[in-house]
Design goal:
Strand content: 5-15%
Number of strands: 2
Radius of gyration: 17 Å
Structural class: alpha+beta
Amino acid sequence: MKHPFPFSAIVGQDQMKLAMILTAIDPGIGGVLVFGDRGTGKSTAVRALAALLPEITKLKGSATNAATQADMPEWADPVSGEMINVPTPVVDLPLGTTEDRLVGALDIERAL
């Protein structure tokens, strides 16, 4: 298994690193969208910080990483009550991802 680049060894990108650290401290912020030119260390920084985060406890098979049955959304398939520890998830988006692909769009037929 490859080890990620050490977060503390990343030089520059101070605003990005601060935003990522604040999100790690207070998940209520909701996350950070990191974007920029190729080769600026975005993915390296995200993977480096993710390696420092503690594991999360979730229901085995939960698509949303729910910690309890009460946290499961109505649309999700039911899962067993078994709890497991997994590494903190990191979402990697491909280049060119549009806003509607990221957050969804209104289903006009269903809305009408």
